[in-house]
Amino acid sequence: MEKIYQASTAEGMIDFINMYDLEVAAKEVIPKGGYGYISSGAGDIFTYKENERAFNHKLIIPHVLRDVELPDTTTDYFGESLAAPIIMAPVAAHGLANIAAERASAKGVSRFGTIYTASSYASCTLEEIREAGGAEASQWFQFYMSKDDGINRDILALAKRNGAKAIVLTADATVGGNRETDRRNGFTFPLAMPIVQAYQSGIGQTMDAVYGSSKQKLSPKDVEFIAKQSELPVYVKGVQSEEDVERSLGSGATGIWVSNHGGRQLDGGPAAFDSLQYVAEAVAGRAPIVFDSGVRRGQHVFKALACGADLVAIGRPVIYGLALGGATGVQQVFEFFKKELEMVMQLAGTQTVEDIKKITLRNNQYL
Question: Quick one: average pLDDT of 132-143?
Fold first, then answer.
């Protein structure tokens, strides 16, 4: 990896047709080690690839004569009005893509009008993220737990002081996945992780070392601890099975976050979209569901909502937009998904997000 890490300094409008073009362009401005870390998956990248392919397992039936015009993507989520049911997924170290880092991404998400999820492994402080998003911005905090509960209490208190409205416990990354691209590139983090500096330096560490410094032995008691200490809603992220739904809700989780970490953890596992359908059936309306992994199109958002998700989170596309256009690029990425979702809604005969949730998708008999 480069001795001096030189992230992009871009800020301004970017020209792109779709998320695939955006990724190709971002590769040219993000240093090799950082791009490999952001873009790669685990092992043979089977699960990484399946995440996107799995959306083709279900088909959207076009509907006509539905009296639909100018579909409305606005979403009321527990009293908050969102521009669309699309939010920012937690992603570590935005400074790998742009020197403005999380300050720019928080600003772009706030301008769009949706929820920003700050990562424990951010390259900015929570105070900086809060200030960039604005006092009225809706922000959640994604939590990687320390092995020291005293430190955990301090970090949760910090998140709460900085306006976090929910805590997201990432439970599927208690050890680093088999990220061979990072090893080929000799990638170690060139940036500090100020939010978790009490137990994590970040600089010079491999991903395995970063995860090794965090708590590996997670249990339902950790969800109870977070809920009690924060007095905030807790989402368990990484749920892909019926059993884990019961384990999470039984420990006091407010919400379920379906994800396979973008195919970066357990290779050979199911696509997140395929897991969503099992999880939604198990949740049975008892808790809100957030979904991420593999989302690259407005129709992917539509299908996830039709299969049980209440919110859809995007990660890599936002980071590519950040690299190419700073806060403006981030906002453009969200606007892209919103525009494509509106088009799909019109053609599927759905006026509102609630209408999407009533749609039945057709199984693709050819796959």
Answer: 96
